[in-house]
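Entry type: protein chain
Record version: 2
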Amino acid sequence: MIRSLLILFLVVASIPAAWSYSKDQMKLTDYEYKVRVRPQLRNIYQDYQTLLSYLNEDLKAYKKLFPAFQNLIADQTKLFKTCKIADSENCTPVLNEVLANTKTILQEIELPPIPTTSEKKNQTSILSYKLYNELKDKVFDYHMLLFNFHFLYNAEVHKPQQVYIFKQRSFEIYYQFNMFIISLLPEKFEDSFQSFWNDFVRPISSDVIFSTSKDEFIIRINQLNMSFNIFHAYMAKRNHVEVDRKIKTLLTIMHNRWNNILKATLR
């Protein structure tokens, strides 16, 4: 698998779609980013979730959890902006909102036993259970951390710098959730999905689409472009990967979305 991905990397790196772009080649404005690029990135993220369920239909049971865990990232941004100042009047409402979100996750995450596919080995199923249990523990600990911070804030004995820990914890939980989901895919896809999530899905879903400025996207565009092309080449163009028609159709849609993003961005 690693050898195949390395070969794909070398092949993709030699084609124009994977070339690096300089700032001089980009024409994107903040307005165009908000109305043309960011919506397409959101669509690709939704397509990614659909693709997961196509590869393992049991994952449909977890579809509601994707936005819930993504909200953790948005929540920590709100916390950092409003609660790092000791006398912030807006902190308590934000804390109440974030606590409600984590409570929802705790309720939703108590799902039936993990689905397994006929292609999964026992060892992989055990890993999935381990990741799932660790995920539940992390969410509970995060909820209690927020609850304690909320209590101390209202008692005016908290330390504003404590908000910095929420960013680290929320990203740890977000990572754990996504690795758990990927662990439930057929084994032949796991490596490519882990790479794609780390280099493309995670940046757009936790950073880029929350920004109203083009800057975060522009900084990452070459990494995103390379990652997307490697993933698409592996999933859609390699003969040894057997995927059905609806998956190929979805991959084509994702590829067209990404090309539209590049057209909106480049001169």
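Comment: Confidence is low (pLDDT under 50) at residues 11-18.
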